[in-house]
Amino acid sequence: MFILTDTASGGIYATTDNYDKKVVHIFEQEEDAQRYVAQLVADDYEDELEIMEVDREVIAINCNNYGYQYSIVTKDDLVIPP
After folding, report:
1. What are 55-71's pLDDT values in tens digits?
2. Cβ–Cβ under 8 Å, residues 25 and 4
3. How far is residue 48's CA from residue 9's CA, in Å, rounded to a whole number?
């Protein structure tokens, strides 16, 4: 599983859903994470992101501890940055 992190702060990249909750995307495939970063760059996202391989359960626990939601992005999902 893969997440996006900010290279400057080390923080996890998250989006905001319709209810103003932070959502961390957890990608099953590294290529999908790379594609998402490329879309962010094309949309002039200013921060530099890197892809980090993680254990799904560790991220789920951390999301729960900090009040974040998480979304598992499978190979069949299409996720477009906000």
Report:
1. 999 999 999 999 999 99
2. yes
3. 10
